[in-house]
Amino acid sequence: MLTSNLTRSARLTSQRGALRRAGFATTTSEPSKYKVLVIGGGTAGLAVARQVYDRFKDAGKSLADGDIGILDAAETHYYQPGWTLVGSGLSPKTDFARPLRSLVPAHISLISENVKSFSPDSSHVMTTNGREIGYDVLVVAAGLQTNFDAIKGLPAALDDPNSGVSTIYSYKTCDKVWTDIENLQSGKAVFTQPPGIIKCAGAPQKIMWMAWDRFRRTGRPNIKVDFYTGMPTMFSVKKYSDALDALRKERGVGGHFSHELVSIDAANRQATFKKAEDQSTVNVDYSLLHVTPPMGPLNVFKGSPIADAAGWVPVNQATLQHVKPEFSNVFAIGDCSSLPTSKTAAAITAQAPVLTENLFSFVDSGKVTNAKYDGYTSCPLLTGYGELMLAEFKYGLEPKETFSDIFDQTKPNRFFYHLKKDVFPLAYWNFMKHILVVASTMSRMTAAQIISLGEYLEPDFDPASLTVSQLLGVLGYHNIAYPTPYPKPKLVQIFNNEVKSRANKFKKERVKKENSIASEDGITDGVTGEPLGRKGRAPASAPRRSSRRLSQVPKVEEESSPPRPEPPKRRRSSAQPVLGGRSKRMSLAQPADTLVEESEHEDESPVKKVGRTKKVPTASHSRRISHLSGAEDSGWEDNNIFQSGAESSSPARASPVRPKVSRSAAGPRKSRKSTSAPPEMNSSSPIRPSTLSPPQSPFRPSLPPIPKFDFSKPPSTRFTPIREFSPAEPVKAEPEAAEERYTATDDVMAESSSGEAPELDSVKSEEKPDSHALDSQQQSQSQLDEAIAEMKTVDMHQLAPYSMAESSPRHWLLRGLLWIFLLTSLFGVYNYKAESSSIGYCKRGTNTSQALESIFAKRAEEQLCRAKLLDLQNSTEHEQATTKLDCDLPPLVPLPRPSSCTACPDHATCSQFDVTCDAGFLLKPHILLSFIPVSPSNSELTTAYLPKLSETFFKAVSVGLDGLPGFGSIALPPRCVEDPQRKRHIGALGKAIESRLARERGKRICRGDAFNASESLEGYEAAKTWGVEETQLKEYFRSKATPKVLAHFDDMFNTAIQQLTQWGGVFVGESADGTRYIAHKTPEMSWQCILTVKSREAWAAWRTTVFVSILSVLAIIGMRVKMTQRQKENRVITELVQVVLDTLRNQEMAHYTDPLTAPEPYLPSLQLRDLILQTEPSLWIRTKLWERVERVVESNANVRANLEEVPGGDEMKVWRWVGSSGRTPGRKGREQEEESEE
Q: What is the DSSP letter of 720?
């Protein structure tokens, strides 16, 4: 437990040590201490509080109820993004407000106070009520404040319904925006945005675009729309700013940038803006003015130790932890943080999972994890009704778009519009409890992502920052065994022993594996000689031509032959080799001849071709050539081992004629070999064995089947890579009938798959004449055309093409795996359903039950038993001890198990499988089964009943759905609804009681009781004075009740009194001996009684009014006299000022006219006073009048006041006339001389 007498460093060391060992400090019995304290109950605060609780629960370290507290005095929670919809007339503002307490789960405490100060050194805060609240971890999510007073005249203009000034940044005024838009018929609509930080920087122009669209849709195009913004551009992200500016120009909206609104004159409908460039102001007339007020940090943060100089909470941009190490248990999120990103609700949804993960890791290990926030935020910019531009970006104002592969997000889209208008508000209110939790789970990196990053191989990596599932994934990836069960400390130990000790080896394996990935580097085009990588980056590619190639070795061209044209760009899939195993298309396309690349040495022997054992008919068994239109048009080479010949073995085409080879040139006849076999190489050829399989071509011709070819299912073949080999034994000749069933390629494939060794038939392509090859190509072309023409005349149903997959072992393996998966899933669902359906209902008002607690206890016993079984594996008494433990090993694949019961319906008491409604409520089926007719209640005032429907139907529903995943233990629980007939009786009785009590109070007021009738007092004395004793009132109404309700009268009477008390019209007082009096707060009187009471009240009230009126009259008379006197003084002052000015002017003229008579051009102020006011005997009056004269005279521009030394040696204030009327021709020169002398 942390103590306040520790120093800061020692306190932090103790705190982190405690957090590592136990997760949290031990909760004290003091109620004002929370393990996690969240400041603010907005979107960020609610999201973090829920996610933190669920994160600890998922990790098996559940917090107790009340360990997390939310500190916020607000009573209402607002969905602020919806205020734009209110201002646009799309929704009422009541749709976006909910009581805050209704959104806070029961296991989280809501503290209805505000924070006053922070003391992070001692880990506590002070509330506005003077309460000190401690914490282990603090999450600041207090938001920011809107400074309406920063703009002069704005608060008064917003309160004035006729000012034309409104804003969507307040729940109070957001509906006024729509009213002003609808009422405006002509004139100028001005929309403003301040410089600096605001909530959702796109909102000021959202409402502008909606207003513009509304004006056009309703026939008001004469309204001019202007946008005055304190920012230099339309939006902070250039991509969206350019699109918005283009939209502004297209729609004719005025754009005035770097203009800040400073004041509003609502009376004259004029707004004053200050320009940023020169700080000058400009006045703008408006008919409608939408104001976005400046915003900033809350006052509580200014000067706080956890805030910076500007008032924001400084946090790490990636982890959201406080930047000061001594405040490492402080996190911040949302608008109050210093994160350099837009302050929106979308940003909070991305920040909350990161903060949750880092907070959990900090508590669990003392360090934050690798979860990082990249600055993502989103701004849905409404640009009109039915269209919206979705701006998404991250740190650095870099776009990070979700739908960029589907839409151009700079173009307004209707899909985005409905997300903003319909989906987001619905999801916020109805699914907030689940969506934010799912976001937290999705934000954690998977084990595959951890492995792909490879950061866990660094020396300073802390394995404790990983979750159990991530540790298991890393250990499994490296084939490291781990114990079962697998507690996290044990996994961390294994990680340190097995992974860290071999980190360098694993790094080398990663580099080696990365270097073995297929690449085009070093592979050149056989025709042009250019690297494939360069060709792949060609700007344009021609249509692909035939990919069939010659089965002969290409002939050497003559020097005089024209150069080949640039071959078309190749498809990457047909040029890149496939590594590791058989291609997915091997079952459909057979490999072709594999020839040696042209890069071999020139002195090697020529490549030999595949021989045949016997002659085959030309029409059906000759080998086809893969190039029908000439070798120059093909994008393939015969000597490229990375090309696929799958198309040459397609069974849908007839095989063209293979050119005959001279027997003498070919050498001795040898047995047939598979067409997929490599050519024989010279023994000196430095070819090494290869494990690469050539890729298969994706080309598949769409031709009808050939009717006279009866294809059978060919055996699956395995491609033989290039390798050195020796000739094998000759194979026996196949029967003629068997050869007629296969094409040449299929025949050779069959032999190859039968185990007979293929053999090469030596052919010297150099001795073949070019004309013979050309004749063979033309003959193949004609035969192929005849085959295609014949196939078009045959119906498709005459031949059913076989499927290679039917006989593939892989196909049957996949089928088997699929059936195993389905059966396993069904078995898992059955077990889950059986266990879940046995739980039943929760206890009333809780989320647990006896059955659920017993299941948890049983699971805990199984876990303990498995732990003991694991500990006994290495013991010498293993066999005797394990026989005593009655538990099974954990499943290989962890399956979900039910962990919750079905909540008991409201107004009901539940046992494990039964529901009993409270008095006054009826048991009804679930809302989804409400269409099923049920029998009415047994009596008019029954309080509970069971539907008299066939029990078979409800049992069938229960057996089929109870316990299924997603349905809960009880799939469709019933509900308790209030008995409508009983409700009507209680309502009638309540009205009668209320009327009776109101009349009783009216009678007592009318007779003039001593108490003040205007006061609404509560308590026993007030109830006794104005009300009726409860027993007397009950007997009064019992005597008037009908016989059929007498049996339930007491219950109805008590319920009616309770409802009246809750509604506030009636109050109850109870004495110490238990006597209860019931009274009404409002009297009910006749008109005669009202007249009497009003007369008494008027007499009491008018006495004060008369005295006040008399005093008011006297005050008015006094003020009138004073005003008359002041007016008289003003006239005197005016005359005196005129006399003074004339005297000074005359003195100036006299000085320059006759210096001897007037030696000085000025006159002393006091001497002038005594001269002019010599008729006033009172010195006080003279002084008072002269003070006012001095102010007026000295403010005159023609008079200069100085201190001069007058005759007699005194220094006095003098006045000198400097006006032009008093100047003489030589005055200017004389003044210059005097100044020079001075």
A: P
What value does the mean pLDDT of the chain take? 74
Say which CATH architecture domain 1113-1217 belongs to: Orthogonal Bundle (1.10)
The torsion angles phi and psi of 296, rounded to 5 degrees, stand at -170, -175
What does the pLDDT look like over 114-144, one tens digit per residue? 999 999 999 999 999 999 999 999 999 999 9
Q: Tokens standing for 702? A: 């769409």
Residue 233, both tokens: 């551009």
Rounded distance between C-alpha atoms, residue 360 and residue 967, angstroms: 30
What's the angle, vertex CA 140, arms to CA 313 and CA 117, rounded to 5? 80
Contact 1045, 1052 (CB under 8 A): yes
Position 1042 scores a pLDDT of: 84
Tokens of residue 783, six digits: 């035969």
Phi, psi of 1163 (to 5 degrees): -130, 140
Note the maximum CA span of the chain: 157
Collect all residues with Cβ–Cβ distance below 8 Å to 147 and sequence separation of at least 6: 293, 294, 295, 296
Among 766, 701, 403, 345, residue whose Cα is nearest residue 552 = 766
SS3 assignment for 537-590: CCCCCCCCCCCCCCCCCCCCCCCCCCCCCCCCCCCHHHHCCECCCCCCCCCCCC
pLDDT tens digits, one per residue of 958-1015 = 888 888 888 888 988 888 888 787 788 888 888 899 898 988 888 888 887 655 544 5
User: What whole-number distance in Å separates Cα of residue 275 and Cα of residue 953?
Assistant: 75
pLDDT one-digit tens code per residue, 699-752: 444 444 444 444 444 444 443 343 333 333 444 444 443 343 433 334 433 343
* pLDDT at residue 174, rounded to an integer: 95
Residues 548 and 627 sit within 8 Å (Cβ to Cβ): yes
From 200, 904, 917, 1006, active-site residue: 200
Cα torsion 786, 789, 795, 801: sign: positive
Q: Supply the pTM of this predicted model.
A: 0.42
The predicted pLDDT at position 374 comes to 92
Question: Which residues does residue 1076 pair with via DSSP β-bridges, in sequence order?
Answer: 1070
CATH second-level architecture of 145-296?
A: 3-Layer(bba) Sandwich (3.50)
Alpha carbon distance 1143, 1172 (integer Å):
10
> Which position among 379, 842, 904, 976 bears the catalytic label?
379
pLDDT higher at 470 or 804: 470
Distance CA 953, CA 931 (A): 13
Residues 695 and 576 sit within 8 Å (Cβ to Cβ)? yes
What pLDDT band is residue 1235 in, cutting at 50, 70 and 90?
low
Structure token pair of residue 1216: 């000198």
Contacts 24+ apart (CB under 8 A), 1063-1068: 1065/994, 1066/993, 1066/994, 1066/997, 1067/1018, 1067/1019, 1067/1022, 1067/1023, 1068/1023, 1068/1030
What average pLDDT does range 488-515 have in this prediction?
86
Q: Which pLDDT tens digit goes with each residue over 707-717?
A: 444 444 444 44
Q: In the CATH hierarchy, which top-level class contains the domain 30-144+297-380+389-442?
A: alpha beta
Whether 1006 sits among the annotated catalytic residues: the reply is: no
The answer to whether 145-296 and 1113-1217 have equal CATH topology is no
| Amino acid at site 1217 | W
Is 887 part of the annotated catalytic residue set?
A: no
Distance CA 442, CA 983 (A): 48
Domain boundaries, the chain: 30-144+297-380+389-442, 145-296, 447-510, 839-864+891-933+951-978, 980-1085, 1113-1217
